[in-house]
Design goal:
Blueprint (H helix, E strand, L loop, with lengths): L4 H40 L3 H13 L5 H10 L6 E2 L1 H6 L13 E11 L5 E12 L17 H11 L4 E4 L10 E4 L4 E5 L5 H18 L11 H15 L20 H37 L1
Parallel strand pairs: 4-6
Antiparallel strand pairs: 1-3, 2-3, 5-6
Helix pairs in contact: 1-3, 2-7, 5-6, 5-8, 6-7, 7-8
Length: 297
């Protein structure tokens, strides 16, 4: 036997131990993530203010899944920008020594696998991230652009998934600024509304209903009311439109008879709906900006 066999055997043993430790740690962290996510779901489903805070954090972390937003909120509710070690290293920033033991765990998709029923699933890995406040970074997140309300009005008119028609207020239910009509697959807008803020709020909510209805004339708006309201709130946050009119009080009634996985699906639908509208609006805003620059030449 080679004189160095023990050396190689020990190295192989350490490598296997390291791999197994990583597997065990990842498994434990995935469980932590599931527990934290479930805890946050239970909290926001019973408290309107916490639900609003979740929407605010979904707006801040618009590229993250609702589940990861819940995890960030559970671990660092004041987070504004997160990244892993490599992300911060690439930005020539270090994690503060006292913060290295306080990572923010999120779940990222890994390898695919086949279930016994032959369906395909995805393994998720718990990844460690750190907020900018946990680093030596001196910069602050870039301020959001300020949008002209008139341009936003033009954008929602151009990007609405269904036609918008101005109508007399007496054709709408009392106190209603706009209403998606599934029988005609169109939005009716109060023709005496003058406030751009109110119009933006009302129309984006009805645009959300229209997207979720997908042309179904039997669409039940009451069953989707919270999702439309929440998607409109996210759009207002994104474009700097006032949100004081939005009321999420009594949240214990917002997800009746739903388990945690069903509530997460509702949150995903809210994010997806707002995102689909904002993509079209952003395209229109880029078009207006390009036109403005062309006219300025």
């Amino acid at each position: 036997m080679s004189t160095y066999q023990d050396i190689f055997d020990q190295a192989l043993k350490r490598r296997e131990e390291s791999r197994q430790n990583f597997i065990n740690e990842n498994k434990e962290n995935r469980k932590k993530c599931r527990d934290m996510s479930d805890t946050m779901i239970n909290r926001l489903s019973k408290d309107g203010e916490i639900y609003r805070q979740y929407l605010d954090m979904q707006d801040t972390f618009s590229h993250y899944t609702p589940n990861n937003v819940l995890l960030i909120m559970a671990q660092k509710p004041d987070a504004t920008q997160i990244g892993n070690y490599q992300y911060w290293r690439d930005h020539h920033v270090s994690i503060k020594k006292e913060e290295r033991g306080n990572p923010i765990l999120i779940l990222e998709p890994g390898d695919k696998y086949t279930r016994p029923d032959h369906s395909v699933g995805t393994y998720y890995n718990a990844k460690q991230n750190y907020d900018i406040s946990q680093t030596t970074a001196k910069w602050k997140p870039k301020p959001r652009p300020v949008y002209d309300l008139d341009k936003l009005m033009a954008c929602i008119a151009a990007s609405s998934p269904v036609p918008i028609t101005r109508v007399d207020p007496d054709t709408l239910p009392a106190g209603t600024g706009a209403l998606y009509d599934p029988s005609t697959d169109s939005i009716k807008l109060h023709n005496q509304l003058e406030s751009g803020t109110t119009i933006f709020q009302c129309v984006t909510m009805e645009m959300s209903h229209a997207l979720m209805a997908q042309g179904d004339p039997q669409y039940d708006r009451d069953a989707h009311g919270l999702k439309a309201l929440s998607a409109s709130y996210l759009l207002c946050k994104r474009y700097g439109v006032d949100t004081k009119a939005y009321n999420f009080d009594g949240a214990e009634q917002l997800f009746p008879d739903m388990d945690n996985s069903e509530i997460k699906q509702e949150l995903f639908t809210i994010k997806r709906t707002a995102q689909e509208i904002s993509k079209k609006m952003d395209r229109e805003l880029r078009h207006y900006e390009a036109q403005r620059q062309s006219e300025a030449r």
